[in-house]
Every structure is written in structure tokens, then in C-alpha cells.
């Protein structure tokens, strides 16, 4: 929220007699609730469509009480904000109405009157009763997951009767939701979304002239599944999905790299080297691939040293046993 005007400076100007800070700034704000319960001031315009009901949103926000310079609540300290679904994860009615008025990239300031915020009781000890609160909200992105949720709730027969473009759109939405979850290090939740998308595509029989569209989407999902299972420390499953990606594109560098990483974790160093050398052939200057090959060489040397040491000990033990006999 670096482009936000300085809140403390904006609210510290001398107030007209009989008016509080929030009363003064409210006079220049747009009424979006119809009863002046939610007021809005756009700091930076966004672009594209408005947020849709039931969308999942990615936002940065800071919340203030009147006469306080520091926020009583903020998620701006987080490196990756949490993806939140309207109607489920957002508890303030005012914030939900505010988000429905926003576009991607928009930065806005809102005043929420008590009925749209914390009500007559407040939220002791932090929020006093009947408090009007100010929120600065930046809408980083949003995904309309309602269409995907509705489609996935249909029977298999109903899904099969849907146009291919609809299936591809839903699968892509599920993949993007998985990507958001992945970036939040919620790897288990991410792989659930990826598998949901993959199941839709595997069940779909497309005509030959459109099959390439299904395969292209499926490839991306398989690559993401392989990486998610690597993060979940399940290299056998990661390898399986990587190999399925290679069936679609046998020269795909990411798939070869994922398979190589999985084999390293499985200590199958010969197969790991085969996958990684093939990946390097496709992308000779890829930093990650080259680093993995260097690590593999180190692991392999350590492995061979341990094998030699073990053989030496076994031989020495055998020799000692023979002498005693």
C-alpha cells in the first residue's frame, strides 16, 4: 500500500468546530450503501471488472480507529496475504460491500459506521461500542470461484453435457486458486485444487481437433501437482505426476526437472542424473537445473564414499572372522 496517501497527515489537519476527523472526511466520500453507512474515497483507480459476489479476493488492508495513527488491524506485514472468499472469510459487512465496489489494482479508503463494522457492542477491549472505523484496502487480485464451485457441484452427467470451453475455464480457475494457496505455503490445500481440476479434464472426452486444448491445460496442472507433492515431501507421488506430464510433452524441461528432483529425494541418483541431463539439454543455461546437477554430483560422491566405507568394514569383519576361526 505504498501509494496510499499518508493517513496520519490526512487526518491531522485542524478540524472545523464541532466536527470530528471522520465527520470531516466523510463529507467528501461516496455513499455506496445507500444510507451513508459505508463511505468510499478512491485513492488509486483500478482496472477491469468489479469484484463479483462469492469471489475469492487477495487484498492488503489496514484498519484504524478515530484519533489513532497506528492501525488496530493490518495484514500489510505479511509477505503473501491470505486468499479470502466473500461470504465466508470476511466478517465485516462493510468490508464486503466495499470490495464489491472495487476493481483489480484499486486502492481506496472506506468509513464503516457501526452497523457495518463492529456494531453497538464493539469488540472489547480493542474496539469500543458504536465505533466508526476507517479501512484502507488495496485489491491485489480476485478470482470468481462461484462459477467453478457451482460446476463442481453438478453431477458427472451434467458436467459431461457442458461445453468444452466451460470445462477448461473451470479447470483453469481451480488451477489459479491452487496457485494462490501454493504461494501461501498451503501445499496440501493447493494440491486438492489441482487434483480437482485434473479430474475434470481426465473425465472429459474432447473431439480430436480440440484435444490439444485439454492436454495443454492438463500439462500445467500436472507440473503444479508434481511440485506440490515435492513440497509435501512425497517424492514418489511427485515423480508419478512428473512422468504423466512427460507423456504429454517428453521434452518439457520443468517436467524433467521435477522428476529429477523427486529421484534425488528417493536417492535414485542414476535416474535423477538421466532426468536432469535431459532437462539441461532443453535449457542449458537454466540456473536451477545446473545447480541441481551440482548438488546431485555431491550427493553421489557422498553416497559412493559411504558405500566404499561399508564394503571396507564388511571386508575387514570377514577377514577378522576368518583369522579367529
Describe this structure in words.
The longest helix has 38 residues, at 287-324. The protein folds into two domains: 7-144, Chitinase A, domain 3; 147-312, Alpha Horseshoe (Serine Threonine Protein Phosphatase 5, Tetratricopeptide repeat). It starts with 6 loop residues before the first helix and ends with a helix. The strands form two sheets. Strands 1, 2, 4, 5, 6, 8 and 9 form a seven-stranded antiparallel sheet that branches. A two-stranded antiparallel sheet has the order 3-7. A hairpin with a 7-residue loop joins β4 and β5. The chain is elongated. The model has no long low-confidence stretch (mean pLDDT 86). It is built from twelve helices and nine strands. With 325 residues, it is of the alpha+beta class. It has helices at residues 7-11, 21-26, 93-99, 146-152, 156-160, 164-183, 187-203, 211-231, 235-248, 253-265, 269-282, 287-324, and strands spanning 30-31, 38-44, 47-50, 56-65, 73-74, 84-85, 103-104, 107-112, 133-143. Helices cover 51% and strands 14% of the residues. Its EC number is 5.2.1.8. Residues 54-143 form the PPIase FKBP-type domain. It comes from Fukomys damarensis. Belongs to the FKBP6 family. Keywords: Isomerase, Repeat, Rotamase, TPR repeat.
Amino acid at each position: 500500500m505504498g501509494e496510499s496517501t499518508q493517513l496520519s497527515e490526512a487526518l491531522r489537519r485542524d478540524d472545523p468546530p464541532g466536527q470530528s476527523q471522520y465527520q470531516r472526511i466523510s463529507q467528501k466520500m461516496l455513499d455506496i450503501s445507500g444510507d451513508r453507512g459505508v463511505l468510499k474515497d478512491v485513492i488509486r483507480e483500478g482496472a477491469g471488472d468489479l469484484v463479483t459476489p462469492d469471489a475469492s479476493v487477495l487484498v492488503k488492508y489496514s484498519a484504524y480507529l478515530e484519533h489513532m495513527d497506528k492501525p488496530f488491524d493490518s495484514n500489510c506485514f505479511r509477505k503473501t496475504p491470505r486468499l479470502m472468499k466473500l461470504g465466508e472469510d470476511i466478517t465485516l459487512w462493510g468490508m464486503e460491500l466495499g470490495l464489491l465496489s472495487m476493481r483489480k489494482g484499486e486502492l481506496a479508503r472506506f468509513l464503516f459506521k457501526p452497523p457495518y463494522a463492529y456494531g453497538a457492542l464493539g469488540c472489547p477491549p480493542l474496539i469500543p461500542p458504536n465505533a466508526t472505523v476507517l479501512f484502507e484496502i488495496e485489491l491485489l487480485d480476485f478470482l470468481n470461484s462461484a462459477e467453478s464451485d457451482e460446476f463442481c457441484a453438478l453431477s458427472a452427467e451434467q458436467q459431461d453435457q457442458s461445453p468444452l470451453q466451460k470445462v477448461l475455464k473451470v479447470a483453469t480457475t481451480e488451477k489459479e486458486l491452487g496457485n494462490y494457496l501454493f504461494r501461501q505455503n498451503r501445499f496440501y490445500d493447493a494440491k486438492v485444487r489441482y487434483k480437482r481440476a485434473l479430474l475434470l479434464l481426465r473425465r472429459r472426452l474432447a473431439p480430436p481437433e480440440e484435444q490439444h486444448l485439454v492436454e495443454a491445460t492438463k500439462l500445467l496442472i500436472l507440473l503444479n501437482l508434481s511440485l506440490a507433492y515435492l513440497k509435501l515431501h512425497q517424492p514418489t507421488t511427485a515423480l508419478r505426476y512428473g512422468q504423466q506430464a512427460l507423456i504429454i510433452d517428453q521434452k518439457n524441461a520443468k517436467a524433467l526437472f521435477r522428476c529429477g528432483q523427486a529421484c534425488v529425494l528417493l536417492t535414485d541418483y542414476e535416474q535423477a542424473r538421466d532426468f536432469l541431463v535431459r532437462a539441461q539439454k532443453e535449457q542449458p543455461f537454466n540456473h536451477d537445473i545446473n545447480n541441481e546437477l551440482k548438488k546431485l554430483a555431491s550427493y553421489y560422491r557422498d553416497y559412493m564414499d559411504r558405500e566404499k566405507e561399508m564394503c571396507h568394514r564388511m571386508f575387514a569383519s570377514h577377514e577378522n572372522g576368518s583369522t579367529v576361526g
